[in-house]
Design brief:
By secondary structure, the chain is an alpha+beta fold. It folds into 3 domains: 9-60, no CATH class; 65-98, no CATH class; 124-332, no CATH class. 35% of the residues lie in helices and 10% in strands. Residues 1-53 form the CIDE-N domain.
Length: 341
């Protein structure tokens, strides 16, 4: 530790030096100096230095690994003595992040993370990929189960064809397990390369105002908690509110938010389309995107998972094949992977 003693600010020997309060970074002026209490903590800064109070210390703490072990032990000790629930919560969250082992990947490196995980999974990324695949497979199962309520044999036969085509498309895309796999390219995954996921907010929001985030790669507890997050069918679309004035002019007032929901919108729309059309008339790419891709999927914290009444229907202009997307489908078949439409 280094320090300097003076009777007043003017006696500071350094050119351009200034003093501020350690607590909040308030600049200590000549007039303010005599009013300071005894044993007040001050920070001496050079001309170009700044101090934002304890926030600076917190920032330095979060950006260094030098004293991690000591911080963990200190946090454990404080938790055992702390009576304030709020402070215990902060310390517990800090401890959980300090003990983060997200940099470890294999079962041999982090056996605790794999507790309860099938032995066939050797890496965290492999399991997380499977976890996402399982969720997407569940959506496909809901599509298949919809056949049970179809009474007309002809419609049921067409729906089975459609369901089979969607299943093949999903299989070709490996059930989009890449969304949870941190080893995938950035454009394909929903997380950072370290494994951090951020809540995308409830269906009426563009962003999560609570800033929910989690790294299921960090610990077994985080992996389990992540299972409560929803990969939900919510599509946010800013729709302007419209009103007619006395002069019969259209005015756009404010944005509304809409969503396309799986059970109550997408699957029923597909069933309705097949009442009078064949599978070959359906734009399967559109329904595939709405059911199984990020086009209509949002990753949300359980608190942000709201099941409100839906207010958006499928786009009838995109539900059926046109000459344009028919040509596109024909072009797609020339590639290595056949794309069903």
């Amino acid at each position: 530790m280094f320090g300097i003693t003076c009777g007043r600010c003017a006696t500071l020997p350094l050119s351009g030096a200034h003093v501020c309060l350690y607590e909040d970074g308030t600049i200590v002026t000549e007039e303010f100096f005599p009013t300071l209490p005894d044993n007040c903590e001050l920070v001496l800064l050079s001309r170009d230095q700044t101090w934002s109070g304890v926030v600076c210390d917190i920032g330095r703490l979060l950006n260094t690994d030098r004293h991690t072990d000591g911080l963990i032990e200190a946090a454990k000790g404080l938790i055992s003595d702390e009576k304030s629930f709020k402070r215990r919560k902060v310390l517990t969250d800090l401890l959980q992040n300090l003990e983060d082992r997200s940099d470890l990947e294999s079962r041999e490196e982090d056996e605790d993370w794999f507790t309860g995980v099938d032995v066939r999974f050797k890496t965290k990324s492999a399991y997380m990929k499977y976890n996402c695949e399982s969720r997407i497979r569940g959506y496909m199962k809901e599509v298949d189960n919809a056949t049970n309520g179809i009474q007309k044999a002809k419609v049921k036969a067409e729906f089975l064809k459609t369901s089979k085509c969607l299943g093949e498309m999903l299989k070709n895309d490996k059930y989009n397990g890449k969304y949870f796999d941190r080893t995938e390219k950035e454009s394909g995954r929903l997380c950072t390369k370290e494994g951090w996921f951020t809540c995308q907010g409830s269906f009426e929001q563009k962003l999560c105002h609570s800033l929910h985030s989690i790294n299921p790669y960090g610990s077994r507890e985080s992996r389990i908690v992540f299972s409560t997050w929803n990969l939900d069918h919510r599509w946010i679309l800013p729709v302007p509110g419209v009103v007619k004035t006395a002069a019969n002019q259209t005015c756009f007032l404010f944005p509304l938010f809409c969503r396309i929901e799986k059970k109550r919108t997408i699957i029923p729309a597909l069933l309705e389309a097949l009442q009078t059309r064949k599978t070959t008339d359906i734009n399967l790419n559109y329904f595939y995107q709405m059911l199984f891709t990020r086009e209509n999927l949002k990753l949300v914290h359980i608190v942000c998972h709201k099941k409100g009444v839906h207010n958006l229907t499928c786009d009838t202009k995109k539900m059926f094949r046109t000459s344009k997307n028919a040509r596109k489908a024909k072009g797609d078949t020339k590639g290595k992977k056949k794309r069903l439409t």
